[in-house]
Amino acid sequence: MSPVTFRKFSFAAGFATALLAYALPADAQGIGLLRDTETEEMLKSYEAPLARAAGLDPNSVKTHLVGDPSLNAFAMQPANIFICAGMLLWLRTPNELIGVMAHETGHISGAHLTRGSFGAKKAMIPMLASLVIGLGAMLAGAGELGMVMMGLGQAVAEAQFATFTRVQESSADQIAAKLLLATRQSPMGMYNTFRRFAQADAMRAVYNRPDRFGSSHPVGQDRVFDLNQKVEASPYREVQDSPQALNTFQMVQAKLAGFVLPVKDALTRYPVSDTSATARYARSFTYMRQPNFQKALAEITSLIDEEPNNPYFYEVRGQIQVSMAKPGLALADYQKAVNLRPNAPQLRLALAGAQLATENPALAEDALKNLKAAILVEDDDIFTWYQTAQAYSALKNVPMADLSTAELWYNAGDMRRALVFATRARGKLTQGGADWERAQDIIGAAGPLASQQRG
Predict the structure, then answer these.
(1) For 51-55, 204-208, 350-354, 389-393, which range has the lowest pLDDT when averaged over its residues?
(2) What confidence tens digit (pLDDT) does each residue in 171-194 have?
(3) Where would you tag: which of 111, 194, 296, 340 has the fewest CB atoms within 10 A of its CB?
C-alpha cells in the first residue's frame, strides 16, 4: 500500500492535535499512523473481548489507525492490528468493524504472522533453484532456455506462496467466527463485509478476469460461502449494535472524514443541510482545514452546548484555537478534556503542547507534569518525548532535555542519534541516579544496534 501521512501538528510551535499523525518507526517503516484518543478507545473496546476469547492478553494486542485511504486492515508481529482510514470510513456498522478485527485477531492467535515468514522462505526455494539452473543454462550459451527456467521458478514460487496465504486467510476467517461466537456477537457484520467485497470482485472480474489461483486471499464468493454456515449456526446472528455503540462509531467516522477526506468530499458526505451531531462534528474539522475557523468554532461549540461532558468536543475546540495561533485560549478547553479523561495520554500531550506553545516560562513546569503523566501510560510515544525535551529546554535543564531526546530517537529506531544524546546526558547527570542509569541503559542497548545501522 501507499501510506498517506497527515501531519496536523507543528514541531516549531510544539503543540499536538486531536488527530496526531506520524510515521511508525522500526518494524513498520513507512506506515503513517493517526493518533486519536476517541478512536483508540473505541478500537480497544472492540478488541479486548476478542483478545480474551483468543487466549491473548488484551493489553498486549495493540490497535492502530493508519492514515491510508485503502480498504485494508492487517496484522503485524508481535500483536499489532492496523485499520486503514479508508476501511473504517467504508464500513457501515460497529459489528462490521468488529468482524474485520476478529479476522486480524485470528491471524495473531493462529500464529500466522510467524508462519508467514516461514512460508515465504519455503516459497523461495524453487525460485532460487531455477535461478541457479537458469544462470547455468545462460552461461552455457542457452540464453533463451535460461530465461524460461528463471521465469518458471518465479511462477512456481508465487503460486506456492499464494496457496499458503489462502489457507491462512481461510483459517483466520474460521477463528474469527469462533471468537464472535465466544463473545456473543453477531457474525453478520463480517459476513456482510465479505459479501460486499465479493460483489466488488465480481464487477472487476467482468473487465479484469483475475487469476483465481494467483490471489493470496480466498476468492470473495468462496469466502462468503464458507462463512454462511457459521452465520446460520450462530445463536447471536440477529444481535444488533446498541444505539450507543452505533453513535460512537458514527462520530468517529465523522471525525475521520473531516480530517482525512478532501474538503469537497467531506462536505458532500456531510452537507450543511445536515444538522445532525455527526455532520457538525465532521464539518468542525473540515472548516478548520479550509481554514474557516469561525465556522469551525460555531459547529463544535454547538456540540459542547448539547453535550457539555464530552471531552473530545473540548479537545477539538482547543485544537481549532491552537490552529488560529491562539494557544492561550486553548488551555481551558484542553484542561477540561483532561479533567474528564485524566488517564488519556494524548489529551495530556495536547494540553502540554498548548502550554509550551504559549512560550510562557511559568507554564513549562505544568507542561512537564502533564508529559510525565502521559509517559506513565505510553513510554514509547515519539512526539511525547519530543515535547518533553522541549519542556526541559524551556526550564533550562539541558541534561534532561538530552536524555528525553535520546528516548525520542531510541523509540524512533535511530540508534546512532539515541547513542549520541544519551552519551551527552550521561556526562552531565549525577552518576548513579535514576536518570543517569536510564542514559546508561540506552547507551548499552543502542550501541551495538548503532553499529549495525552504520553497517
Answers:
(1) 204-208
(2) 888 899 999 999 999 999 999 998
(3) 111
CB hemisphere CA count around 184 (13 angstroms): 0
In terms of Cα–Cα distance, which of 130, 138, 17, 15 is closest to 67?
A: 17
Do 320 and 297 form a contact (C-beta atoms < 8 A)? yes
Instruction: State the Cα–Cα distance between residues 49 and 51, nearest whole angstrom.
Output: 5
pLDDT tens for each residue of 325-346? 999 999 999 999 999 999 999 9
- Nearest Cα neighbor of 73 from 109, 99, 111 is 99
Contact 253, 285 (CB under 8 A): no
Place of cell 476468492: 219
Helix, strand, coil shares, percent, the chain, to 5: 70, 5, 25
Evaluate the omega torsion of the peptide bond into residue 78 and state whether it is cis, within 30 degrees of 0.
yes
- As a whole number of angstroms, the distance between CA 289 and CA 96 comes to 29
Strand order in the sheet with 80-84: 20-23, 32-35, 62-66, 80-84, 73-76
Question: Roughly how many angstroms between the first and final C-alpha of the chain, as a whole number?
Answer: 28
Cell numbers linked to 31: 506506515
